[in-house]
Design goal:
The structure holds two protein chains of two kinds. Chain A is mainly beta. Chain A contains no helices and eleven strands. The radius of gyration of chain A is 13 Å and the shape is globular. The mean pLDDT of chain A is 92. In chain B, the strands form two sheets. In chain B, strands 2, 4, 5, 6, 9, 10 and 11 form a seven-stranded mixed sheet that branches. In chain B, strands 1-3-8-7 form a four-stranded antiparallel sheet, with no helix packed on it. The chains are: A mainly beta, B mainly beta.
Chain lengths: 111, 118
């Protein structure tokens, strides 16, 4: 079945880059997403990438996709305290009607 | 332009009671999705509805759970005879694109309803 896996925790120093990794199993995935969830809040879509792309950059965010290895990563440049949150990797098929989420990576920032 | 609205934000129910969770999609969106998030876990898809139709309910428990999205008014997720295991955050999302349609696609999430069953 469909599965998305990511590590549970990541700690980085303020100003450094954060790299959050994710693997997925569904080879028919069409859309791959990164969502951010702050404590007690809903999910905010940060960015998404189509499966026919290798990379997408949006300001401080860079998404890399290795479709062969089914590996997705999110790089946050110049990490700030406001980036502390849980980051969810997710995927959906071409119908985009159902999103499959990973368990989330909790990013903490050290001063 | 208001985002996805959910109410109540917090709901406490005793075992055996009914829980009703409401979701008003973003203006112009006719597709609604419900997800459940158990503590320390990711979101799990429950159901996808379009106005007056259930499109995909593959994630819904077979008993006690139902969802509707009437022609007028919000989408409702209804849980009958709640049990402790139903305690979770329930998120609603909406989009303007649905199954079979092309173009860019985004699901916008509401703030969630946190259900506690005592």
């Amino acid at each position: 079945g469909e599965d998305v896996e990511q590590s549970l925790f990541l700690s980085v120093r303020e100003g450094d880059s954060s790299v959050i990794n994710c693997t997925y199993t569904d080879s028919s995935s069409t859309y791959l997403y990164w969502y951010k969830q702050e404590p007690g809040a809903g999910l905010q879509l940060l960015t998404y990438i189509f499966s026919n792309m290798d990379m997408k950059q949006d300001q401080r965010l860079t998404v890399l996709l290795n479709k062969k290895d089914k590996h997705l990563s999110l790089r946050i440049a110049d990490t700030q305290t406001g980036d502390s949150a849980i980051y969810f990797c997710a995927e959906s098929g071409s119908s985009a009607s159902k999103i499959i989420f990973g368990s989330g990576t909790r990013l903490s920032i050290r001063p | 332009n208001a985002g996805v609205m959910q109410n109540p934000r917090h709901l406490v129910r005793r075992r055996g009671q009914e829980a009703r969770l409401r979701c008003s999609p973003m203006k112009g969106h006719s597709h609604v999705y419900w997800y459940r998030q158990l503590p320390e876990e990711g979101l799990k898809f429950m159901v996808y509805l379009q106005k007056e139709n259930i499109i995909d309910e593959s994630g819904m428990p077979k008993e006690r759970f139902s969802a509707e999205f009437p022609k007028e008014g919000p989408s409702i997720l209804r849980i009958q005879q709640v049990v402790r295991g139903d305690s979770a955050a329930y998120f609603c999302a909406s989009s303007s694109r649905g199954q079979g349609m092309t173009g860019t696609y985004e699901q916008y999430f509401g703030p969630g309803t946190r259900l506690t069953v005592t």
